[in-house]
Design brief:
With 249 residues, the chain is of the alpha/beta class. The protein has one domain: Carbamate kinase (3-Layer(aba) Sandwich), CATH 3.40.1160. The chain has eight helices and 13 strands. A nine-stranded mixed sheet has the order 6-5-7-4-3-8-12-13-11, with helices on both faces. The radius of gyration is 17 Å and the shape is globular. The two termini are 18 Å apart. The mean pLDDT is 93. It binds uridine-5'-diphosphate. Uridine-5'-diphosphate (UDP) binds next to α2, α3 and α5.
Amino acid sequence: MSDDASGKLVYRRVLLKMSGESFCRSGESGISMAEVASISEQIQRVVASGVQLAIVCGGGNILRGKKFSAVSAAINAPTAHYMGMLATVINGLALQDALENVGVATRLQSAIRMEGVAEPFIRRRCVRHLEKGRVVILAAGTGSPFVTTDTAAALRAREIEADVVLKATRVDGIYAEDPEKNPHAVRYTDITYRDILAQNLEVMDAQAIHHCMEHKLPIVVFNYQKTGNIERVIAGEKIGTRVMADEDG
Ligand code: UDP
């Protein structure tokens, strides 16, 4: 990460976390290819600017392990989490086709081996694809149950030496209260990892925040639904909320 002549942050390698909700229409579940296509067009412009981009897909539009096992006594919790991980592969396939439709070269890598569908996640191979300008879609989370794809995003970002984790959401950043419940809630432009943890803010799961804090990996939470925002945030414009270390680390 460096500053350009105008003082903007310029990222060389970016880890974009796309939640399952970005694969469907607001309030719905499943996959809307219109939504995926619209995001893919934004991503195509970003990649054309030369940034190296890896994307971790969520799966909540299809199934979240914790929720599913809580309401279905017939399913074991680990099984439900594996189902959630497979949901992220379904999203990854949809995103791969949508990106290829707009001319973006991609690779889909999965943390759970499935040879006929995706490459296995191999760190060095992933980095090589990025260096060649391919977008690498990282599916199946960490490959282990009981965590979320936020944690997968934080871990993978560190592994591939990304400069930043960009968390794409449907709100404009991190708020002191839920903006959908209180329309007057105040948005932070900057916040520390410690404050997120201390205030128990529902941004990303605590494991992900801890990992980013430990390795001083910046996070930007932003609204991907405003057209051009993915480009803006990658170009270093100060949109959304930036999460960084305080002076004590
Ligand atoms: N999951 C998991 N291990 C991982 C990542 C995900 O078990 O490393 C499961 C977990 O059950 C989770 C589901 O996959 O609920 C879908 O991911 P997530 O809830 O993070 O999706 P998002 O909220 O981003 O749509």
